[in-house]
Amino acid sequence: MKFRIAPSKAGQIVRNLDDIQGLTYILVDLPIKGGEAAIVDLNDLQRNVQDTSKVSRIKHNVEKLTVIADSLEKYVATWNYPEPVPADLKAYFIENLEDVKQYLKDLHEIYDSEFHPDDDFEDFTDTDGNTTFTVEQAKYLNKIMIQCFDVCDKNDLEIYDVAGEVQMEIWRRNGVWPK
Fold first, then answer.
1. Where are the beta strands (DSSP E) in the chain?
2. What is the Cα–Cα distance from 86 to 81, expressed in whole angstroms?
3. pTM for this predicted structure
4. What's the number of CA atoms in the CB half-sphere (13 Å) around residue 2?
5. N or C: which end of the chain has fewer CB within 10 A?
6. What digits encode the pLDDT tens for the residues 116-152?
7. For residue 5, is pLDDT > 60?
C-alpha cells in the first residue's frame, strides 16, 4: 500500500510522488499561493555546498510531495540501516521519547492504524481482509517498534503507557474522548 505523508515544515526531506528515479529533496519553504512549495535537490546542494547560491530552488506542487524524513540528520542516520527504508514509508531514527511519540502518532494518523505495541504489522488487514502493509513495510515498521521499546526501557518507561497517552491525545483532539 502507498502512503503519502504531507510536508508540514521547512527542513523535511521529501520525494516527488511522480518521480520514478526517486530523487530526494529538502523542503526549503512551506507551501505558498497555489499550493506550491520550494524544494532543493539534495544532490545539487551537495555539489554546491561551498556556494549554495548556485543551488536552484524548484517550485513544486505540495500535493505531489511526500515526507521521507523529518530532518536531514534523520535521513542521513537511515543510511546505516541494514536494509533500506521502503520507498513509500517515512524514515525513522528513534533516539528519544519524542521520536517514540512521533512514530506512534504517525502510526495512527499517517498509516491509519489502530494498534497495540505488541502487534506484528504483518498481521494488519483492512475491512476486506487484505493485508495493510507489504512484507517489506511490515518488517520495517516492526523494527522501528523494537527501537521504541528499547528507548522506553532505557528511560524506565512503559511503552504501553506512552502509546496510551498518544492515543488519548489524538482522541481528544478529534473529539472522540472528552478533554
1. 13-16, 24-32, 36-41, 58-61, 65-69
2. 11
3. 0.69
4. 6
5. C
6. 999 999 998 888 888 889 999 999 999 999 999 999 9
7. yes
Q: Alpha-carbon distance 40 to 35, whole Å? A: 17
- Name the nearest CA neighbour of 136 among 100, 93, 70, 83: 83
Provide the residue range defining the domain that includes 136. Answer: 94-179
* Domains held by the chain: number: 2
48: domain CATH number?
A: 2.30.30.30
Distance, CA of 160 to CA of 117 (rounded, Å)? 7
- Residue type present at position 46: Q
Cell numbers of 54, please?
Answer: 548556485
**Residues 101 and 166 both lie in one domain:** yes
Predicted confidence (pLDDT) at residue 1 exceeds the cutoff of 60: no
* Gap between the Cα atoms of 148 and 159, Å rounded: 7
Residue 67 sits in the same domain as residue 103: no
